[in-house]
Structure formats: structure tokens, C-alpha cells
Write a structure and sequence with these properties.
Largest sheet of chain B: 6 strands, mixed
Distance between the termini of chain A: 27 Å
Mean pLDDT of chain A: 87
Number of helices of chain A: 9
Low-confidence stretches of chain A: none
Distance between the termini of chain B: 128 Å
Helix content of chain B: 40-55%
Low-confidence stretches of chain B: 1-22, 223-227, 430-435, 582-586
Number of strands of chain B: 20
Number of domains of chain A: 2
Largest sheet of chain A: 5 strands, parallel
CATH class of the largest domain in chain A: Alpha Beta
Radius of gyration of chain A: 21 Å
Order of helices and strands of chain A: EHEHEHEHEHHHHH
Helix content of chain A: 55-70%
Strand order of the largest sheet of chain B: 2-1-3-12-4-13
Structural class of chain B: alpha/beta
Shape of chain A: elongated
CATH architecture of the largest domain in chain A: 3-Layer(aba) Sandwich
Strand order of the largest sheet of chain A: 2-1-3-4-5
Largest interface: A-B, 18 and 23 residues
CATH topology of the largest domain in chain A: Rossmann fold
Radius of gyration of chain B: 55 Å
Mean pLDDT of chain B: 78
Oligomer: heterodimer
Strand content of chain A: 5-15%
Chain lengths: 200, 586
């Protein structure tokens, strides 16, 4: 599995469960870190990198629900897979409403867990990318943003220049700068990026 | 004899002569049913003979009409009595009596009425042909106390099944005894009961004219010769005739002399003939029967009289009895209702008690089951993940390793464990959702479970046998049902039984499984509250096994029942009923 720098965070208060899980995931080639409880994880882990949190629900101090809520508040791109000994309906609905990717009951088979992790990773990477693009977009000057918004709605450079009362050349310069900052190689790329950001 | 009497008379003349005196006569009472004249006429000769035979003695004949004789005091002044010995009881002289001699047939027409006693029942030629046909008719008779003129006839009718007053109406015409026949001739009655020879006497006197009468007799019974062949037509058997009795005023010597004299051959053929006094035993027996027949009527008459006299009291008494009866019935009803109410209340209390006991402990059980589930799931989770990692590595590095299936088995066992816990959670928290089961042969399932407890059973020396029809299959959550079987079998094995038998048979809506052991069996309290948590007889027991079993059975829509062995021996019986299409099939 191509995981790049993606990390799997195993958060469980039970040391042997933590170890077993990490051992299993490392066996299949995933990069793992384990955390004994929710607070330590939130304090020490890189919450803005791509990754998956395997989160136990029943823990002392910060339980799974609190950790999930905190990550949501932070806007972390980490994907959450809830792993619990016993699930009931309210717990499951809460988890998905809080943005969990999956909800699995312990003990969980590798064949069940791996696809879930893959899905979660893909989503996390996507979230990471989006987060980066959003950062780049917000770093644009107001002029640059205005120009590319015009481009997005399908206006020509002339129309944008006319609309904003500037020269066509000025529009062309702003547009090139914005594309460079956003990392868009060409026009179609820019439109795709803008759509992603707009959807988010 | 005459000498003896003379000696006696000479010796103590005053002993018996004084009260009467030489001039005083012995008074001989003679019953005269045919009238005093006829009596004096018939017995005059005999009186003369007596005075001749006993010179110096005088005998006066005192004819007595029978009804007259019955009056109290009628016999007070008599010294002798010539009468029917059977009627003598009714006459009741109140004095001691010595019977001297009994008349026997002499051929004299005027004595024939006395020489034999019996009844003749006469009807007109055109009248009833048998005694039984007299039912409902008027029957003439002489007198209620007359022997030949009524009582013997009544006895006869009684034997024919007729009762006086009920089945026929007796009409008494009184003495002389021929009157009933005259009544019959006149058409006032349908039949006549008369003493013997009355008919013949009337016929001879020409008083019957040319009217033809017929004698009724019991069929198939001959008028037997009790006292010789009857001189006249008789319906009944004839009884010995009249007897002469000496009353207590007659000295023994005279009585004895007289008795002897009577037995001598009379000098004249016209004189009555005598025999030794006849024993009255047979006759008395008949008389008693007659008394019974007529006494029965008397009894009812008595009852009617008492009723008429005391009816207000009797009515009051009856009303009181009715009130008592009604009162007690009402009380009984009230008591019954009260009892039913009490029983209902008791049953409700019992149910409530059971429910309370369950609710009390089930609540803590649910909490506990959740805790257990979590605690067990953690290590299970770790085991599974190590096993998964191991399997992955083996597959990658040495795909044909012999260890791979073993690891696979570890994985499967963990999953089974997990399944059991899930089911445990499922029923510990009662909910509508029942897990869907797979269809399995019951026999294989039972064998598998027996395999699980075999180790322990072998250690304790317990034999487990099973007989399950091969065709029997059920759609069950098998892990759940296994748990039930394991629980029940464990109980049996650990109870101290030597042999545990699992039997199964099809039942109308599923399978019926019985687990029987020969251990100590269930206690009474256990049978009354079978499924109560935390009650155990074992040191290390949790007391949850049966409760768990029951919850699972309910979730499978089956039933579990605890009982004693059906054959009465010691040991426990657990009955499991599972529907063949179990949970989730609908």
C-alpha cells in the first residue's frame, strides 16, 4: 500500500490491544503510532497531516466521542474509524454525524479493517489537499481572488477587465500569479481547484 | 277322674265353691257371631251334658256378640270362654288363660262355623274372575277385627298384591257374619269376605234364591287341610276351630277334670267333639302377618291424624328447616367466593413476587453482561489481531506452512467466542431484534456440544448419551443454542450425576429435547422460581447458567422447563422446546 507519509494512529487505553493492533497493521506495511489515551494523542500527534485514527470509544479521561469532537473543531484532516467493543444505535449515529468514516466492532478482522483504512486514508489525503488549497487560496491578494473568480464563472479577460475597470494586461498578470500560487499548471487545473475549494 | 274330682271337692270345698256357692253357676262366655239365639240353640245340649257330667255344678251360657265382647270389661265376670283362640288376643281378658280343648269337626251343621276357621271370598257369577281383578272394587266384610270375616281375606288379598284402602274399599256390614253376602246380593258391594260356611248356610236356608255366586281362590293354591278337609267352600286355608279356655277364677282341679271330660267320646253324636288344644304358633304367625297388613294401614292413619292435629307446628318446623338450609347454602356460597378471591389474590401475589425477583436480579445481570462483554472483547480483539498478523505473514513468507490452518483455527474460535458474547448481550438487554439463524441438523449440534463438555464429564466420570433423530433440523442461532445446551449439560455433569441422557424428538411445532440426569435433581424452591440469577449450589458458581439459558431460549422463541424426572426417580429433567423455523423466519 502506498501510504506516503500517512500515519495510522491507534488510540486505545488497553496496552495489549494497542500493541496487537499496531503489530498487525505494521505487518501489512502500514506506518503506525499508538497512543494510550485521547488526551495524549491530541497533545502530541500531528493533527493536520494525512492519516487515520483507530479510536476506541471506551477510554478514561478523553473517550472516543470527545476526541472525535475535538478533531472536528480543529478541522483536522485525519479520518476517524471508530473501533468499539459494543455498539448501539445512538453511538453509531453520533459517530457518523461527527464525521467518522467507519464504525467497526471489536474484534475486527484484517479483511474488514484494511479496506476501511484504505477508504479512510483516501479521504484524509483528500482532506489534506483541500486544506492546503484552501490555505493557498486564502493567501491570494484580493485582486487575484477577484480575477480568478471571474475566470471561474467563464468570463474572458476582457470582460473581467471591463467589469473591474482595469486593463486586460493587469488581469492577465493577476491571473498568472494566482495560478502559480495555487499550483495550477493550466486553465482546466485552475477551474478544478476552484471547484474543489468552492465545494468545501 | 270323677273320683279325683270328688275327693278334691270333698277336701277343699270352700277353696273354689265359696265365691260362686253351690247356687252360683260357672259363666261360660260364648262368642256368637251369628247371634245369641243361634249360639244358645247350638250349645244348649252341651251345657246340659256338662251339668250331667259334673253334678252339682251349674254352667250358664253367656252369648257375646263379637263387637260386644271387644268392649272393656265384657269378660270380667266370665269363668270360661269359648272363642276363637286367635281372636282371644284381641279380646284381651287381662287374665291368665288355660286352653282346655279345641273343637274338631263333628258334622253338626250349627257348629260348622266354629269348627274350622277361614275366609270365603264370593263374587257374582258375572264378576271378577281372579283376586287380582278385585283391584279398585268395593269388598264387603264383617268387621275389621273379624278373623274369617275379614282379616284372613285381607291376608289373601295382600298376597295377591292388593292393599286395603288403597287397592280396594272394604265395606263393613257388622254381625251377623252373613251380612256381606246379603250386601253382595243387593249389589252394594262387588265381592264379599265371609267366614266359612256362611254361604252354605244361606244357600240351605234358601235365602240366596237362584243367584249364582262364585268363590275366588288364589290360583295354583289348594285350600290345604290344616284342620281336616273343609266342610264348606273356602278361599283360604282353614285354621283349627274354636277352643275352650278356663279363666283364672276356675280352680285347676276343675279345669283339668273338664279338659279330660271333653276329650272323652261324647255319649251322643249330637254333642260337639273336642281334641287337645291346638298350638297357636302357626296361627299366630299368620295373625302377626295380618296385623302387619292391617297395621300398615293403621300407621298411615296415625300419620294422617298427627298431621291433622299438629300441622301448624309441623309447618313452622318445616319453615325453620327451610330457613336453616337456605341460610347455610348462602353461607357456603359466600365462603366459596371468599375462597376464590383469596386464591386469586394469592396467585397474583405469587406472580408479582416472581416478577419482582426476576426484575431485581435481571437488572444487575444486564449491567454485568455489558461489563463482561467489554472486558472479554478486549483480549479477544488482541488475540484476533495477532492471529491475523501471523496469518498474513505466513501467507506472504511460507504460504504452504502447516501453521497457517492452525492460525486460521484460532481466528475462527475467536469469532465463535465473539458470537457467543454478542448473543449474551443480545438477550441480556431484551429487545425485539432476534438474530437470524442458520439451518442445522440438531444431532450434529448436540454432538458438538457434548464434545465441548466431554473433557469435564470424563474427569468427573459422567457418561453422556444422546439420541437425536438424524432428520431433525432447526433454524437456530446455533451459537446461542449451543450455549443453552452447554449450560444445561454443565449443570447436569457438575450436579453429581452418573449418566446424562439427551433425547430429542419432533414436536408439533419444532423439536422437543429432554436432558435427563440421575443426580440429586432440583430443589423445591428451585422448581418454583426456576430462573433466578445468582443462585447456585456450587462453590464457584455464578448462578447465571439457567437464567442465561432461559433468556436465549426466549430469544429463539423456544422454551425451557425444569422438572423432576418423569419416572419418579431422583434426578433432574430439563425440557427444551425449539421451533423448527426459529427466530427471524417471519
Amino acid at each position: 500500500m502506498n501510504t506516503n507519509d500517512a500515519l495510522i494512529h491507534v488510540v486505545d487505553d488497553d496496552a495489549s490491544v494497542r500493541h496487537a493492533c499496531r503489530y498487525m497493521l505494521e505487518t501489512v506495511g502500514l506506518d503506525c503510532r499508538d497512543w494510550p489515551d485521547g488526551r495524549v494523542f491530541l497533545e502530541q500527534a500531528d493533527l493536520y497531516a494525512a492519516g487515520v485514527v483507530l479510536l476506541d470509544m471506551r477510554m478514561p479521561h478523553w473517550d472516543g466521542r470527545a476526541v472525535q469532537a475535538h478533531l472536528g473543531r480543529l478541522g483536522s484532516p485525519l479520518s476517524i474509524i471508530i473501533l468499539t467493543g459494543h455498539a448501539d444505535v445512538p453511538m453509531v449515529t453520533d459517530a457518523f454525524r461527527g464525521g467518522a468514516v467507519d464504525f467497526l466492532e471489536k474484534p475486527v478482522l484484517l479483511e474488514t479493517l484494511l479496506p476501511a483504512i484504505e477508504r479512510a486514508l483516501a479521504r484524509s489525503e483528500q482532506a489534506c489537499r483541500l486544506r492546503r488549497l484552501q490555505g493557498l487560496y486564502h493567501a491570494l491578494s484580493p485582486r487575484e481572488r477577484a480575477v480568478i473568480q471571474g475566470v471561474r464563472t467563464g468570463m474572458t479577460n476582457r470582460e473581467i477587465a471591463d467589469a473591474q475597470g482595469v486593463s486586460v494586461r493587469y488581469v492577465e498578470v493577476q491571473r498568472a500569479q494566482a495560478m502559480e500560487k495555487l499550483g495550477a499548471a493550466h486553465m482546466a487545473d485552475l477551474i478544478r481547484i476552484l471547484t474543489e475549494i468552492g465545494d468545501a | 277322674m270323677a273320683l279325683g274330682l270328688a275327693l278334691y271337692l270333698a277336701g277343699i270345698p270352700a277353696g273354689w265353691a265359696v265365691p260362686a256357692g253351690p247356687a252360683a253357676a260357672w259363666r261360660v262366655g260364648i262368642l256368637a257371631p251369628r247371634g245369641p239365639e243361634k249360639a244358645l240353640q247350638a250349645w244348649g245340649d252341651w251345657r246340659d251334658w256338662l251339668e250331667t257330667r259334673f253334678p252339682g255344678e251349674r254352667f250358664d251360657l253367656v252369648p257375646l256378640m263379637p263387637d260386644e265382647a271387644l268392649r272393656r270389661g265384657a269378660l270380667d265376670h266370665l269363668d270360661f270362654l269359648l272363642a276363637n283362640p286367635l281372636q282371644f288376643g284381641a279380646l284381651d281378658p287381662g287374665r291368665s288363660v288355660r286352653w282346655l280343648a279345641t273343637l274338631r269337626p263333628s258334622g253338626r251343621r250349627d257348629l260348622r262355623f266354629l269348627e274350622q276357621i277361614g275366609s270365603a271370598i264370593w263374587v257374582r257369577e258375572t264378576g271378577p274372575a281372579s283376586l287380582a281383578q278385585l283391584r279398585g272394587m268395593r269388598i264387603g266384610a264383617v268387621d275389621p277385627q273379624a278373623l274369617g270375616g275379614y282379616l284372613l281375606g285381607v291376608e289373601l288379598l295382600d298376597r295377591a298384591g292388593l292393599e286395603p284402602g288403597q287397592d280396594y274399599v272394604p265395606v263393613f256390614s257388622g254381625f251377623p257374619a252373613e251380612r256381606p253376602l246379603l250386601q253382595l246380593l243387593a249389589g252394594h258391594v262387588d265381592a264379599a269376605i265371609v267366614p266359612l260356611c256362611q254361604y252354605e248356610a244361606l244357600r240351605e236356608a234358601g235365602r240366596l234364591g237362584d243367584v249364582a255366586l262364585r268363590l275366588l281362590r288364589p290360583e295354583g293354591e289348594q285350600a290345604g287341610p290344616d284342620a281336616g278337609a273343609p266342610a264348606c267352600a273356602a278361599s283360604t286355608r282353614t285354621l283349627p276351630g274354636w277352643s275352650l279356655a278356663a279363666l283364672d277364677t276356675v280352680p285347676d282341679a276343675l279345669a283339668t277334670a273338664l279338659g279330660r271330660a271333653l276329650l272323652e267320646t261324647p255319649p251322643s253324636a249330637d254333642l260337639p267333639r273336642w281334641s287337645l288344644p291346638v298350638s297357636a304358633a302357626d296361627v299366630e304367625q299368620r295373625l302377626r302377618r295380618i296385623d302387619y297388613v292391617s297395621g300398615r294401614r293403621d300407621f298411615w292413619a296415625q300419620v294422617r291424624r298427627l298431621l291433622a292435629h299438629y300441622w301448624p307446628w309441623l309447618a313452622g318446623l318445616a319453615a325453620f328447616a327451610a330457613w336453616l338450609l337456605g341460610n347455610s347454602l348462602w353461607l357456603a356460597r359466600v365462603a366459596r367466593q371468599q375462597r376464590l378471591r383469596l386464591r386469586r389474590a394469592h396467585e397474583q401475589l405469587h406472580t408479582y413476587e416472581q416478577a419482582l425477583a426476576r426484575a431485581d436480579r435481571v437488572a444487575s445481570l444486564e449491567e454485568m453482561a455489558a461489563g463482561i462483554a467489554h472486558e472479554v472483547k478486549q483480549p479477544l480483539s488482541a488475540i484476533l489481531q495477532y492471529a491475523e498478523a501471523m496469518a498474513y505473514r505466513l501467507k506472504a513468507e511460507t504460504p504452504d506452512s502447516a501453521l497457517l490452518p492452525v492460525v486460521q483455527r484460532i481466528r475462527d474460535e475467536v469469532l465463535r467466542c465473539d458470537c457467543a458474547i454478542a448473543n449474551l448481550r443480545g438477550w441480556a438487554k431484551p429487545g425485539p431484534s432476534a438474530p437470524v439463524g442458520e439451518r442445522r441438523a440438531l444431532g450434529a449440534l448436540v454432538d458438538q456440544v457434548i464434545g465441548m463438555v466431554r473433557l469435564q464429564a470424563d474427569r468427573l466420570g459422567v457418561r453422556i448419551e444422546s439420541s437425536v433423530p438424524a432428520a431433525l433440523a432447526a433454524r437456530l442461532v446455533s451459537s446461542a443454542f449451543e450455549l443453552v445446551l452447554v449450560n444445561v449439560l454443565n449443570n447436569a455433569v457438575q450436579s453429581g450425576a452418573g449418566l446424562v441422557t439427551v433425547r430429542a424428538c419432533p414436536s408439533p411445532d419444532g423439536a422437543h429435547i429432554e436432558i435427563v440426569d440421575d443426580g440429586p435433581g432440583f430443589e423445591e424452591a428451585h422448581l418454583r422460581f426456576p430462573f433466578v440469577p445468582f443462585r447456585t449450589t456450587r462453590q464457584d458458581g455464578l448462578g447465571l447458567g439457567l437464567l442465561i439459558a432461559q433468556r436465549i431460549m426466549l430469544s429463539l422463541r423456544g422454551q425451557i422447563r425444569l422438572d423432576r424426572r418423569a419416572d419418579g426417580g431422583p434426578g433432574a429433567l430439563v425440557v427444551l422446546d425449539v421451533p423448527l423455523e426459529s427466530a427471524g423466519s417471519d
